[in-house]
Design goal:
By secondary structure, the chain is an alpha+beta fold. It is built from seven helices and 18 strands. The protein is about 15% helix and about 40% strand.
């Protein structure tokens, strides 16, 4: 992967929002190449790990333009720093643990307070922000607003497609599909080639044991819950909730055995 992409080709983050994060957009590959001279854009995904109410507000995310919103309106909201106008232009979606969303380059979005997410994404930090002051009152520098390209070019980063809520949910909220199951395990695919070639994500529910065979690439295991052991090349290792484990491409197979029912998230690099 590093030989092909100059890096691992994927970035995995944990994000816990105490306050609503700013409204933003990330570049797609075309914009990244033409404007930022980068071979990577910043298509990303969200997997909701947990939620909590803050000041009585339930956990929500915002994404995609509502039906009828135009670029002209969006530019006026930005120029006037009409934050409510911008938020009201986006679909507001209540989330719960286990929800999964694709956030393609060019799609406007914001993360509400009380969201604990795992983000699997392209390995850049290109972020265009349309709020110049955070909800807590922190001023955002021009460079962090437009990444040095200027406000007009920054606004070109958005895809101005508009959707009904039903269309938005159908396009971006991803339902797991079962790949394999037995009495002791269920393996679901979440993000795969159907959605993007930038990364992949699967869920492994374990109440027993399951062996994962290498597909020729490394992957990262995030232990969502539970505990148990991993058996690899005759050696046994413990795992527990919160562990993040890098599995080398050189490992042909690894067996996971749960001592406490487990949920493992398997994160993959570009296909």
């Amino acid at each position: 992967m590093a030989d092909k992409f100059g890096s691992t080709g994927v970035l995995i983050k944990m994000l816990d929002s105490q306050e609503r994060l700013t409204i933003q957009v990330h570049p797609d590959k075309t914009y990244a190449k033409d404007i930022l001279n980068s071979s990577f854009g910043k298509t990303e995904s969200w997997y909701v790990l947990n939620t909590r109410e803050i000041d009585g507000e339930k956990s929500v995310v915002y994404m995609g333009f509502k039906k009828g919103v135009t670029r002209k309106e969006w530019e006026e909201y930005f120029t006037n720093q009409d934050i409510e106008g911008m938020l009201n232009s986006l679909h507001k979606i209540e989330v719960k643990p286990g929800d999964a969303f694709m956030i393609y380059g060019g799609v406007p979005h914001a993360i509400g307070s009380g969201c604990f997410l795992m983000e699997v994404q392209e390995p850049t930090d290109y972020t265009m922000r349309v709020e110049k002051i955070t909800p807590a009152g922190l001023e955002i520098s021009p460079e962090l607003v437009h990444q040095g390209v200027g406000e007009k070019t920054m606004l070109d980063c958005f895809h101005y497609d508009d959707y009904t809520l039903e269309e938005a949910m159908d396009k971006w909220k991803i339902k797991p599909k079962t790949l394999d199951s037995s009495e002791g395990h269920t393996l679901n695919t979440i993000f795969n080639k159907t959605h993007t070639d930038c990364f992949g994500l699967s869920e492994l529910y374990l109440d027993g044991e399951h062996t994962i065979t290498s597909n020729g690439s490394f992957y990262v295991v995030v232990v969502y819950s539970g505990e148990g052991t991993m058996i690899c090349n005759g050696e046994e290792y413990m795992y527990a909730q919160g562990d993040e484990i890098f599995i080398s491409a050189a490992i042909e197979n690894i067996t996971f055995k749960s001592t406490v029912s487990s949920k493992l998230l398997l994160c993959y690099p570009p296909s």
